[in-house]
Amino acid sequence: MTYQPAPDDEAIRAMLERRAARSRPTDLLASVRTLAEVTPQRRSRPAWTSLPRREVLAGVVGLAAVLAIALTIGLSAGLRLSGGEVGSPTPSTGAPSSGSSVAPGAIEPVLPLTVDQLNDLMAANLQSLLGRQLVISGNLVVVPQFGRFCAPGTRCSVEPAVALQASSPTLFVLPAPENPVMSPWVDGNSVVGTFAATLTSATTLTYLGRVTTGAAGVPLLPSELPSPAGAAGLWLVHGWIVSPAIDPACGTQLLPTPGPASGPGYGCGQETLLSNVGSQPGPSRITVQNDAYLAFGPWPSTQEQGAPHEATFLLEAVQIPPCRPTQSCPTASSHWAITARLDPWTQPAQTTQRSIGPVDEVPPVLPLSVAQLNELRGADPSLVTRRMLVINGTVEGNPSTVSCPYAGGAAPRSGFCAPVVLAGSVPILGVQVGPNVGGGAWTAGGSDLIGSFAAKLVDPGTIEYLGPVITAADGQPLLPSQLPNPALGPPYSLVHGWIAGETEVKPCPYVPGSRLTSGPQYGCGRTAILSDQRFQPVQRDAQGTTFAMPTNGIRVQNDAYQDFAPQPQAVGPQSVPQQATFLVQGVQQPQCSPGGTICTVGLATYGWAIVARLDSWLTEPSP
Amino acid sequence: MTELDLVGRARHGDLDAFTALAGARLAAMTRTAAAILGDETEAHDAVQEALISIWRELPMLREPERFDAWAGRILVNACRHALKRRVRVRVREIALQPDGVDGSGLLAASGRVESLGQEDALIRAFERLDADQRAILVMHHLDDRPVTEIAAALGIPVGTAKSRLFTARRALQRALDRESR
Question: Which of B18, B118, B180 sits opposite A2 (nearest CB)?
Fold first, then answer.
């Protein structure tokens, strides 16, 4: 080794001068000023912070209780779509400011989120908002591009940056990758009003489009919608969704399965209407896509199938291609399609502490901390390799890649040189985005991803990121009854409850032309449930056995008891309920008739599927 | 209007006052960030991030007369974040000819070439230091700030500042040794 003489002060100064000389005057000040205009200042903490600790604690507990109650009764709202949910408040009074768009029933229409409400929701539980679609009323301000401006974590581009005014932290708005030209700010104009967007990271929204509402942001009535021909953007509508029956003219044409849907269907199928009133769906109604009731109707389904249900929806106009000759469909034309439903915010992760649940016989399993993962990998790497893990940590850009060699321009993908890593992992774990995830939260805006997520260790230096995991606000698993509608989308949820199911396989009647699809099944087979308390769903009497659903529980895929119960045991047709912590995911499945005796295919519905069981730091692999 | 007045007004949301404060410090902040980071683009990003943080947190500043020290700490934090964000291969600009030296003279002047090689090694060694070590060397050697002022800017006791300065110098020496392996 050669030891260098110590650098003298002058050498260090010259070196630093040389580095400092690389900076040149820019128009940075103008960019900073524009950003400051959309960045609210943080004000002093409230006076209660100076109170004695016990009083503060009492106040916090009380405030939390009030907030929980307030949120539960609908101060904010949720909307679902194939993967989205929004929060929005209900209006303080039922009467809107104009004569139009009057709420037709007992349920208050849901209004778009204000920026202040969005800030509050993000501060309360950011994780539960990630990946969700939001309807927001606010101003999108174009931040001028002075050659040196980028959204945080992204490299500079020629596009101007757009921010949601008064959002905290500042939310930068990006165009949807599949449709960048729909960005209304390409001409440098700001957007004032209501729009839909997906929260893709802690600092970025992906813009989906403008939303048309009635006066003062109140939703329109179905009868107030214009003709769908030429109607642009998204429309906020409050009304009654109803599904009278399967169109009898369709006959058996439901079978065979038409295959993967290429878009909404109209005509033959489960007709769905949206009406001004629930009792008399007269002329003041519109037809929306088939099966919309199944996707956007009530959840949990406490009403008779197809019964009128009042809610606020997001609609868009769609063009339908010509139908097949065997179907009695209308000719190609424009139609209205529901893309989302706004609900009063009941997302359990937002409001509920699991500690209010029943006493556990088996303690819930919490996500792995990074320290625990390090310990496991150090003890025996095979314990965690190729297994599904639920990790609570931070995924961030790798601060060390500057020192990495790059052969042929291809960046190494794992370990020390991975572009994205799990913070605190030792040895360092690179993070890859798994299939069907649509990009990690860090890829859109470059922000760190903080919280619980599902992943698999694919090699000693790499984990595959599978998606965020929803938990209760205190990080504990949810109760089964706290799970939201599974149609909400791909994020996983962590749930602790009792699993039980049938032990005997029922014969499945053959339906000509029908077939079972791949993936979890919910029709013929051994039905399984997850419930808050110990529950035996298989009831025996003199006539035989019947299957009952618990009041506080959900149905999961067939055979889930046999696949995921810690120690499956059968006593005749009854299983022994067992308590454990599970990772569940909402999946789209074929529709089966009640009781599971006849399975038809072709009508989509949604269900919860268990994908893993968490056992004392580890989860079992999917079967 | 004094600097203290500007700080006071900016604390209460006066954007013009904040712009005046920022404008007066922009060049110095950019110079410091560039020296720490060695990259103009990242330096501008860091300065922008720091100024927005300053704006957002200004109402929480309890001692307005210590605005500059407080702002300096925020800038160092922004530089630290910038170093963490280096997730991609950096494009390093290589000057075809050093400042003030023409190409023909470069090859001829072997002594100058040796000097440039030493400085390059020093730059590479500096790149091995963490943000705090870089910051204290920049404040001491580039900004000529006394240790007491450095201590105030970093929010640490004078003794700790001296110790950190010594540690940074030693780390630079070790990094230089590693560069010569």
Answer: B180
CA–CA dist A68, A348 (Å, integer): 10
Mutate to test the interface with A, among B57, B94, B141, B165 (most CBs of A within 10 A): B141
pLDDT digits (tens, 9 = 90+) for A572-587: 888 999 999 999 987 7
User: B interface mutation test: which of A3, A9, A15 has the most B CBs within 10 A?
Assistant: A15
Q: Are A267 and A327 in contact (CB under 8 A)?
A: yes
Q: Which of chain B's residues have a Cβ under 8 Å away from the Cβ of A430? A: none
Q: How far apart are CA A240 and CA A272, in angstroms?
A: 10
The CA distance from A359 to A232, in Å, is 52
Q: How far is A377 from chain B (nearest CA, A)?
A: 25
Measured distance CA(A118)–CA(B168) in Å, rounded = 44
Q: A408 at the B interface (CB within 8 A)?
A: no
Judged against a pLDDT cut of 80, whether residue A66 lies above it is answered with no
Go through chain A and tell me how many residues it has: 623
User: What SS3 state is found at B180?
Assistant: coil
Looking at this protein, which amino acid is placed at residue A114? T
Q: Residues A579, A584, A588, CA angle at the centre, nearest 5°?
A: 135
Q: What is the distance between the alpha carbons of residues A135 and A556, in angstroms, rounded to a whole number?
A: 31
A65-to-A51, A70, A72, A241, A569 alpha-carbon distances in Å: 19, 8, 10, 33, 41
CA distance A535 to A300: 18
CB atoms within 10 A of CB A543: 6
Which pairs from A45-53 meet CB under 8 Å and 24+ separation?
Answer: none
Inter-chain touch B27–A15, beta carbons under 8 Å: no
Torsion of CA B110, B113, B118, B119, to 10 degrees: 150
What would the two tokens of residue A92 be?
A: 């303080």
Summarised one tens digit per residue, pLDDT across range A363-413 is: 888 888 888 888 888 887 777 777 888 998 887 766 655 445 544 444 445
How many CA atoms are closer than 13 Å to the CA of A138, on its beta-carbon side?
A: 29
Neighbours of A486 (CB within 10 A): 22
Report how far residue A524's alpha carbon sits from residue B69's, in angstroms, rounded to the nearest whole number: 71
Contact B180 A4 (CB under 8 A): yes
Q: How far apart are CA A51 and CA A414, in angstroms?
A: 50
